[in-house]
Each structure stands twice: as structure tokens, then as C-alpha cells.
Amino acid sequence: MTIHASDLAAVMQPVSNARGLPNQFYTDPAVFEEEKKRVFFRNWAALGFISDAPGPGDAKPLTFLGQPLVMIRDKDGTLRVFQNICRHRGMILVDKAGKIERAIRCPYHSWCYELDGRLRTTPHVGGPGTNRHDAIKRDELGLFEVRSHTWLGMVFINLDGTAPAFEEYAATAIARYADFDRPLYKCGDEGTFTMEVKGNWKLAIENGAESYHLPWIHPGLNSYSRLEDHYHLDIGDPFCGQGTTVYNPMLTDGGRRFPAFSSQDPKWATGAEYPMFFPNVMIGLQNDHTYGFIVVPEGHDRSVEHVQIFYTDPKVAGEEWREMRETNARTWRSVFDEDIFVVEGMQRGRHASMFDGGKFSPVMDNPTHDFHAWIARQMTV
Description:
Blueprint: H1 24-27, H2 29-41, E1 45-49, E2 58-64, E3 67-73, E4 79-83, E5 98-99, E6 104-105, E7 112-113, E8 119-121, E9 145-151, E10 154-158, H3 166-169, H4 171-176, E11 192-197, H5 201-209, H6 214-217, H7 219-222, E12 230-232, E13 239-244, E14 272-277, E15 281-285, E16 289-299, E17 302-311, H8 322-349, H9 366-380
Antiparallel strand pairs: 1-10, 2-3, 2-5, 3-4, 4-9, 6-7, 7-8, 9-10, 11-17, 12-13, 13-14, 14-15, 15-16, 16-17
Helix pairs in contact: 5-8, 5-9
């Protein structure tokens, strides 16, 4: 389908005059199919977490917008993403997460690949007992590798290969959050969870971008990090979001805290920021832990949210930290769960024929407007 700039002119107006994205951006499967190409395939999108493949040989298959992919850590420790198909007949190679000890073997005809994607063996390809043939050039038949980059505990991919280098694409945020670009540790399984949502993927990002809803949707969070303690982020594309000047969670009665990052800017001692990295991830940055919140579209009206909490020190995996880890995970899970009914309610509301995309607050809705305008530009270029 073709979407003209004139169709979205109201979305790209300054926030005080703008309207939100039209209903079909949430309810029309044809728009969703176009978004796959224009928004997800040609930009850097979040796929998963580095903890999904922590050591050499670890592999995790994933389906992302219909694409069969596999995340693999090679023998040298480099995390790579491949299309999860054999170059012979397109058979799925890896069907469950686990460790690959020697080679990636196709279960159909036993073609085998190195962990770095090179085609190693092609048994009987030239006839029984003949494992080579002049027409089968192994050095040209390695796995299809997808551009990938790891940052802040997450794995990002550019499916069509046309985006600028990640370091250029995310330069302003990389500089802003350099204090957090250090080894991060998944400690236990408490901080890993998944939520299924009956709503368009964009609604989850829009909701996370702003703090306007805190008093009514997150009264517990708002009790110590109030609406008036929050501010909007001005990082520039492809980011928006919010921050708080008050970060002081009380996870124990005695005030015990997780180990904090060392040598950070003093502003992080009491503050935290929650940038949205377009198109599909929210990042939580606090001085004692971070998280990635990845939204994977499953259709125009269905999404899956994947969350992973990371800590600053591997010792937090110890039993003496378990209760605090569990409390921290419950706290964040409750916040994210509180947002689900909002996302699902807005999704149902998008079927109202008279809704015109909505009117933004020029003061409170700037991040959401930034995201809508970015989507509009992607869809009309």
C-alpha cells in the first residue's frame, strides 16, 4: 500500500497542533505489513538479550516479524544472528534453545555449518560417498547473517542491511549513557519475564514514553517518584522518553541496596532515565540495575513484551541476594502489568470511527508526539 505525506500531515505538525496517528495504524493488517518493511526491517530493532546466548555454542531460535532467526555465540565469543535456514532446501536448523557443541547440523540432509556461519560439510552431495561437487561452492553457501549489534545487554538487528552503522544511528544516546555501557549480568531467573498483550505494538511504546499517566495507573510508583519529579528526554531521533530526579527504591526494611556502578556521573546517584529506542524497546537505566523491555509485534493487534533485568555485579546472583532480586522483579512486573489494561483499552478504542488520532497535551505528551512523528516519517519516505 502507498501512504502519502499528505495523509499524515497532521501527525507531523508541532505538538500543540498535531493529531496522533490515524486508527488504521492500529487496526489495519495492511498498514502493519507496510510497517514491517519501513519501520522494522530498515532500522535497528531490538531482537533479544545477550543473556539468551551467554557462552560459546549457545544458540536461541527466534521468530521476528515472521522471519526465522537464530542467535548464536561462536567459538570466539562473538554473538551473531543468522537466518535460521539451511542454504540447501530452506529447512529450519535450530528448533530449540541450547548449546551446540560442534556444528550446526541441518536435520534434513545433514549439511553442517560452523558457529560463525561457514558451510563445513555437504555429505553425499555429489552422490553416495561423494561429499563435494563443483557446483556446490561451500565458501559461497554460508548461512545468511543479519547485521547485529549488542548494547546495554540487548541485541539489535537491521534486517535489510540498509541502516547506518549502529554507532552512528544511536550516537547521541550512546554518548549520553556511556556510564552504563559496561558488563551487565543476568542474576537468576527472577528478572526474566514475558507478557502477552492484545494491543498494537506502538501503544506499548507510546505508553512507556510518558509519565503523564503515573498518578492514576501507577500509584505505588508515583508515591515516591511523583509526576512532578519527572522530565522529558531530548535526545533526538530515534529516541524519546522520560527521566526522574528521584530514584530511591526501598527493597528491604533496612534500606539495603544492590551494588551500584562505580565512577558514574553524580546525577545517577538519585536519578534514572527510561528512553524509548525506536521502534520497539524501552530501556531502564538506574545506578544499581538496568532493564530491557522489548516489544515484539505478533500482528496488528497483538504483541509480546519481553523483559530482562540486569545487575552491575555478578555476585548479585548469590543466594543472599535472592529475596531482593525477587522483590525488585515483582516491583517492575507490577508496573508493567498495570500498563497492560491501558494498552488493551486503547486498542479497543481505536475501532471508534469518530476518533481522529487524539489531541496531545503540548506540555505532557511531547515524547508520544515525537514517536508518532517518527513513525509518520518512516512510513512516508
